[in-house]
Design a protein that fits this description.
By secondary structure, the protein is mainly α. Helices cover 50% and strands 0% of the residues. It is built from 13 helices and no strands.
């Protein structure tokens, strides 16, 4: 994949704000965090200072950078926070007006995955609920056709808990992924071939007409 100019620039001319983030020097980070630097500075992998703080697990610092205007369109910040289960940063980003469905840019193997998909995939239940409350689309589809609900298809207890949260928002369980399968297919298959009826029973409770016998 061709490297972006910002990514190339960040690799070779990295702003000192990134060293300050990595070394835990918060006061130096905040001293360096002027609007221009927050908008244009990029780390080794093209990440913004805000994303660098999230990646470093520096929640309080990340929130301060959000309050200073450090979040920008398509910066991947909300997906990064969802991947790490960082509810406080998700709160700050949504309150700052972040698009709850904004996917992380330039992800070859997860293109189009929304923050809700990441939170569901990693079973961060509180983050899922906050994103849904914040307007995240329960039916958004990644490039491969998967929705958030499809990240529960294994039917394990943690999947069922996540699916129950999603079902409160009435996802379209007939949407199909790249394999041509939907959640109804998966639920029936789990029960028929694995003896696990938990997904089918949950879906039948929310969508009784989908499982009526002909």
């Amino acid at each position: 994949m061709r490297e972006s100019f910002l990514g190339f620039f960040g690799r070779h001319f990295r702003s000192p704000i990134f060293s300050a983030i990595e070394q835990g020097r918060d006061q130096d980070v905040l001293r360096l965090a002027n609007p221009q630097r927050l908008k244009t500075a990029r780390g080794r992998w093209g990440e913004s200072p805000l994303c660098a703080a999230i990646l470093s697990g520096r929640s309080e610092l990340a929130i301060q950078l959000v309050h200073r205007g450090g979040s920008f369109e398509n910066d991947g910040a909300l997906s990064q926070a969802a991947m790490r289960g960082d509810l406080s940063v998700i709160d700050a980003l949504l309150e700052a007006g972040k698009n709850p469905d904004e996917a992380m840019p330039d992800q070859e193997f997860s293109e189009g995955m929304t923050p809700l998909m990441w939170a569901t995939n990693r079973k961060f239940y509180a983050c899922m609920e906050r994103l849904l409350e914040g307007g995240a689309s329960v039916d958004a589809q990644a490039k491969d056709g998967r929705t958030a609900a499809m990240f529960t298809l294994h039917g394990q207890p943690e999947d069922i808990r996540a699916l129950e949260i999603l079902c409160r928002y009435k996802p379209d369980i007939t949407l199909r992924d790249w394999r041509g399968r939907n959640l109804v297919d998966e639920a029936i298959g789990r029960e028929k071939h694995g003896g696990n009826s938990s997904m089918r029973l949950l879906l039948e409770r929310h969508y009784p007409s989908m499982f009526e016998q002909p």
